[in-house]
Structures
1.
Amino acid sequence: SEERSLNFIEEIIENDLNSGKYETLITRFPPEPNGYLHIGHAKAICLNFGLSQKYGGYTNLRFDDTNPVTEKTEYVDSQQQDIKWLGFQWKNELYTSDYFQTLHDFAVKLIEKGLAYVDHGTAEEIAALKGTPTEPGKDSPYRSRSTEENLELFAEMKAGKFEDGACTLRAKIDMSSPNMLMRDPIIYRIKHAEHHRTGNTWCIYPMYDFAHGQSDSIESITHSLCTLEYVSHRELYNWFIEMLEIFPSQQYEFARLNLTYTVMSKRKLLQLVNEGVVSGWNDPRMPTISGLRRRGYTPESIREFCERIGIAKRENLIELSLLEFCVREHLNKTANRVMAVLDPIKLVITNYPEGQSEILIGENNPEAEDKGGSREIPFSNELWIEREDFMEEPAKKWFRLAPGAMVRLKNAYIVQCDDFIKDENGNVTEIRCSYFPNSKSGEDTSELHVKGTIHWVSTAHAKTAEVRIYDRLFSVESPDSEEGDFKDYLNSDSVRVIKQAYIEPYLAQADMDSRYQFIRKGYYCLDLESTPEHLVFNQTVGLKDAWAK
Ligand code: ATP
Ligand code: MG
Ligand code: MG
């Protein structure tokens, strides 16, 4: 892609590297393994890995697994697969849970410095004393406990002496700070739950704010990039690092990706999965990386999308059509053209010998430098064409088939419609044509001039396939900002299944990694459920932006 100016994070990094503040850029991508990654994560992945590639540093993959209840190994595995598929490789695979002992020791250090205390208040009691953004909070009755008592109580918390919620460890900062997060935040809570990696070793778990910055610091992360929701957390991030006297990682915030016609939080996507609204995390309508992959998106197109949306400091809403544009552009360059008839009607060529056939040659991709090679296409006197390519009473400027009209059959001959047959209900069932033997594509000497070209498949040679065509998952631009539940705004018509489409025989050898342009119809790929006996294709995207105004 073309040259662009530096974004604000690149400016910061270049300054830091030029001034010698850091020698090597180290970033991290820190997903919580509580769901599958989505296109929003792709933005953070492209940012973090893209920066370290550009500046010759490295990126760690750190699973931010501090909540034993929602995390699963299935998610760890899928997240790794998705990052690799996007084209990135991390330097170290790390887990916040590997730092549980160190984080515990950091907490002890804070207690020893008189900077943390055990609070027996309930969640409600603690909240009641927090104050409001305009009014200072009040000290907890447990705030003035001695260091010895706090050390002992924290040890008892760790040893499992208390039940969930009986007490917490809080940082002792400032109950009248204008930043509510600085009003003695909870840093450890009790949870008697099995953790996906540490099992039952721990029954106390660090809060996000106590884990994240310190984990960055442990790994000597130089630039810790996160989304704007964390702006107010930065003060706390810095406070812990300063009080603990550890490596000064620095946090910078950028605008998260919001995309029209979808939702992006893992919690909400999980709801769609659990309630059966979609077939799974990798349903082709999902904004997850695995859903996009199954839909036929390429890693290149997703990276290009992330590059185009750029990095901003202010929230915005990106059009889904931009993502579609990016994949359409990439597939236009790379996908082989093939013929598939989705809504078939029979066309009989009356002057072509019955029972005879010939092999025609089709160029695979006129947009590719090598034209993508070529393929063989069988032709005969009986073809399937699209029902919509025939009009009994043609509109003005109709260049396709109609009584008396001529059209070119792609890669084949020019035909003229002589007649058509209707059933008792008045539906056209067959179109009868004659062909011009001297009009063969590539060696046409007929001097006939036709404006329209249509696709077709020989009935005797056609294979059948199921074709799934998708629409947006939600019917409104921003389901998150509508009144009521986001699920009230689902598009009830987001998938259309064509049980029996006819495809050219070449497509019987399609593999999972290939993408195709069904000429005049859109871009398609095999679905995960496809078998050689029952081919299933997904539409990735139509040929044109159907939503363009
Ligand atoms: P979700 O609510 O979807 O679970 P999250 O922020 O809780 O999002 P994490 O697994 O913690 O999910 O995210 C890992 C990284 O991805 C974080 O650094 C986070 O800032 C980033 N990220 C998550 N969602 C987006 C988004 N929509 N745009 C850009 N970055 C995102
Ligand atoms: Mg998170
Ligand atoms: Mg989350």
2.
Amino acid sequence: MSLLIQHGELVTASSRQFADIYVEDEVITRIGSNLAAPPDTEVIDARGKLIFPGFIDPHVHIYLPFMSTFAKDTHETASVAALIGGTTTFIEMCCPSRHDDALEGYHLWKEKAAGSSACDYAFHMSVTHFDDSTEAQLRHIVADGTSSFKVFLAYKNFFGVDDAEMYQTLTLARKLGVITTAHCENAELVSRLQSAFLAQGKTGPEWHEPSRPETVEAEGTNRFATFLETTGAQGYVVHLSCQPALAVAARAKGRGVRLSIESVLPHFLLDKSLAEQPGAEGLKYIMSPPLRDRRNHDALWSGLASGLIDTVGTDHCPFDVEQKKLGADNFTNIPNGIPGIEDRVNLMFAQGVTAGKIDIHRFVDALSTRPAQLFGLYPRKGAIAVGSDADLVIFDPMYRGKVSAAIQNTNNDYNGFEGFSLKGRPSVVTVRGKVQVRDGAFIGEKGRGRFLAREPVGADHDA
Ligand code: URP
Ligand code: ZN
Ligand code: ZN
């Protein structure tokens, strides 16, 4: 069935206009004034609403064996939560450990998602070791449509790679035209600091941030940028959390290194004092890089406003309170992660756009269009244009509410953003022309989501 959305105000990364949108066979086929509705067309009146291109979360963890446990969401729960929050596509980190076979890991992650996601999805392929079979395996994975890699400079002996492995990954990525995303913290320094604090009896969650200080993240960011500069590869720093790392990344961008920057929802809105709370409360706020001192917030918001920070993701990674308690006596055992897939769009709108910290077009750009462009999804996703997939968010800017774990769809027993005010939320969300969400409720088809095969975006790849 076709769909006509009338009288809405279309807001993209670069334009704003009142227009109707007509959708046939999953894609937008017409945009214009007073479009007629042929018989059997589903009509939505979007008067008073903003219409955004479906939002893309470029960094989520759904299936994740990590720190002796598993992240809590399934593809079903995470995708429903994503859609209710206006995210119509996510890119999941496929994360086999250093001891696993990469190709087996890739097939496992694809199987977990297949038929279970209500929204479209893709993967970044983590390269957690580099041996004689790795190049052939990665070529196979890229040919299958997963055209972005991930390296962890942190998590020694689990996901982490050494400099030689990072060099080999980036050299291959450059050849294939594949972008490489990176978690930038110096693993050796983290491990030394952790041991030193534990030896002094400093075991609580308040020691997590001091064990991974801003300097340690700046070093990782600088090293990644230097490796990009040397290999000519294209890179993307994930979850950049603080001013010193931003300064290093800005300098690299300034001298022409092909580097993009992502910061994630928790680092804009939360700070390290939350992890310093006693009892189980502090455990809930452990992620890496850690929540930082509040003075970093201004640097992140102004970096986002200017476009120095390209994208906003979530690093969605839910562990419940029982799981967090695995590290109650030793902060190095607290499963790292804070969920946010359901809250990113609404909170960045309320705390960013409505609060006057970022322009509405930058908001659309950072949460939809830039991720699509950087990861080979544009203009299929990230745009409202004839020929684009009809992934649309009809957003009610007059809605008022609060974030609350009691009503969330993410599979977790707390929400790190509990009590934050919402000033607007999606009232209708479509995935390729099908209404999946209406007024905060999922009303759609659970298995609708498709794996998105992506071409490498690198201009000069020679395969
Ligand atoms: O704390 C985090 N960020 N958990 C997920 C794994 C990662 O480093 O992205
Ligand atoms: Zn990470
Ligand atoms: Zn992550």
